[in-house]
Amino acid sequence: MADLGTDSFEAVVLPHLDAAYTLARYLLRDEDAAQDAVQESFLRAVRHFRGYRGENGKAWLLAIVRNCCATARTRGAREIAFVEFDETHHSDHVESATPELYLVRSDAAESFTRALDSLSAADREVLILREVEGLAYDQIALAIGAPIGTVMSRLSRARRRMQTLVPREARDAG
Fold first, then answer.
1. Does the chain have fewer CB atoms within 10 Å around its N or its C terminus?
2. How far is CA 150 from CA 33, 64, 139, 145, 153, in A?
């Protein structure tokens, strides 16, 4: 095992800060708790970087984030709050919207958020890692510490549930 140094830490881990926050926000449903979990995750990553063996850096970091979020949930450190996604705040490109388009999009976002919240934590987790973060099945398996078959079944179950819960109009509006 080579000594990777701080430059390598910056190259391997820091590019995934946004992905870490996104995962923590979806898992904890609280912006402050997500920020705390990401900060703790990066501290753990720095402390344990010597043990990093060169596998996928994003999956490695997200596994740490996942563990920090699980610790925060079991500790009951905070009340879980509903965090609404604000497209104007989280998007680089916002079209000029008519009131009708805004209404359709806000209804679609509400439907999607309610459906996502109804998933089990395990199903929501794999769905976010795959669809939002774009991780491959093997990377998700590494991040959550489960076999690829488990990842595939959870992802399939989550997608089916989302399709039944989110009305077609809402899926088309996005």
1. N
2. 28, 19, 13, 10, 5
